[in-house]
Every structure is written in C-alpha cells, then in structure tokens.
Amino acid sequence: MTGRSAAEQTAFGPMVIAACERYTPAEQRLLDDDLAARFLPVGQRLVVHACRWAPVRRLLLDATERQAAGLWGSMLCRKRYLDDQVRAAFAAGIDQLVVLGAGLDTRAHRLAVPAGVASFEIDLPANVADKRRRVRAVLGERGDEVRLAPLDLASDDLVPGLERLGYATDRPAVVVWEAVTQYLTEDAVHRTLDALSALATGSRLLFTHIRRDFLDGTHLYGAGPVHRRMTGEHRVWHFGVDPGEVGPLLGRHGWTEVEQVGPAEYRAHHPEVALRGLSISEIERCVRAEKR
Predict the structure, then answer these.
(1) pLDDT by position in tens, the chain (length 292)
(2) Are the beta carbons of 31 and 59 closer than 8 angstroms?
C-alpha cells in the first residue's frame, strides 16, 4: 500500500522494536512477538533481519534514543504490560478481545486465537484492507479467525459495528487501545469512551496516553525531536492528558481507573530493564480501567 499517512508511518517503529526484541537473549527479553516481523512491509523486515547482529541493534537503539530518551525501552515495556493484562483478562474468564486502531497489532492472533477468545479489530478502512492482505499472506485462512471492522472512531458507531461481526454486548470484553489516543482529537477520545460505556459490567479497558505537559511543550522529557515532528507544521498528535486527570476522564464515561503505570512501575516489575540498562521515556503511560 502506498501513500501512507504520517500516523501510519509512525506505527511501524514500535512493530520494528517488537520484532527486533526476538534477537535479545531469552533471559533478558521483555517481549516475544513471533508475528511482528512477518506483518511488516519488506523495507522494515530487512531492518529487522539486520538486527540479528547486536551491533546493528545497538545502532538502531541509539538512533531511536536520539529522538526520545527511553523510547525503545518504553515501547517494549508498554507492550509487555498490555500483553500481561490481556492474558490476565482471559485467565479471569473474559472471552472477547477488541483492539481499537489495531494497525499491524498481533495480539489477536498471538493471544486471543490460541485461547479460543472471540477477537475483533477496529481501524480505518484502508488500514483494515492492508491488514487483511498481510494476515492472509502470513497465516492463510487461519487469519480469518480475527474479525476486522473498518470503522473511524471519530465518526462511526463503534458498538453497532462490532455487533455486526458477532460481538456480544451482554458479555465482558477486554479492550486494547494502544498508542492511538494521541492521534485523535479530544472530541474523538470522548466519543470513543462514550461508546465504550455500553460495554458489559466486568469489561476491562487498557490504553496508553501521552502526557499533556509534553504535548503542549511545557516539559520535553528528553524527547524534543519527537515533539517537533509530532506537533509541528504537519501535526499528527492532538490529545494528551496528565496522569492525575485520567481518573476523572474515565469516570465521566462510566469507567474506573484501576492502575496507571510508567517508568517507575516498569522498573519495579521487570528486572530485565535494569539487567539491560534500559532507560524508559516519561512521555507515555499505560492505564487499566474496569467497567463496574
């Protein structure tokens, strides 16, 4: 697919990082995504392949760090956290997964399909068409087990779109909304949360957010180049929220914040971070919420 938007282009970076992680020794690995490289376009797959050599991985990591201090470690830790929380939801008996703004995300295939969970991915129509083509090329008919809904979170009706694919509104779901909110307007974020308020009691919402003080330039947290690229003339990041504002934001839409994690929590829970000397960016945080 050609003519990708800036938002689509930036989505490749985290997938490249996830794919490169498979070349890290198992005892130091934060993430094990065996599909990430296979879903990537050819150019990015070549980069990943080159990263089997440790010096090349170090060059790519250093280039990433020059854009934002701790970005590489932050991407790995957020993906590990979200994977762990999705698995915990399945272990608790939740049998539906919804991935919003899925892009090339692999969780539905890696985690949901083996667990027998009904899985749904939401993205813009062009992205859905691209994802369907890539998944079929890699997984064949098995890829069709994940149901794809071409929807725009800013304008389309989310829950009716899911219902048309077999989503059961009377059963809880775990919803993953990774690295998406910053690309939406504030109105679109509220619109999505309002739609998600229709989910059944016991549902879980996992999402990431960019700090408002980074987005408005008050604190750059060692990520000046990223700030300039994402908020400059061709702005692609629009929404940010400070950590203390998350609970009230969720409460307006019937959700309860359960946990919010960032660098301190990642370091405390994952010894691999210290073992590898990874820094972790302050600009993004992960949130777990529940519908009660």
Answers:
(1) 334 444 555 668 899 999 999 999 999 999 999 999 999 999 999 999 999 999 999 999 999 999 999 999 999 999 999 999 999 999 999 999 999 999 999 999 999 999 999 999 999 999 999 999 999 999 999 999 999 999 999 999 999 999 999 999 999 999 999 999 999 999 999 999 999 999 999 999 999 999 999 999 999 999 999 999 999 999 999 999 999 999 999 999 999 999 999 999 999 999 999 999 999 999 999 999 999 9
(2) no
Tell me the CATH architecture of domain 69-291: 3-Layer(aba) Sandwich (3.40)
Could you tell me which residues come within 8 angstroms of residue 179 by beta carbon, excluding any fewer than 6 positions away? 11, 14, 78, 101, 208, 284
**Packing angle, helices 71-91 and 54-67, rounded to 10:** 100
- Please count the CA atoms within 13 angstroms of the CA of 150 that sit on its side-chain side: 8
Decide: helix, strand or coil at residue 162.
helix
pTM for this entry: 0.95
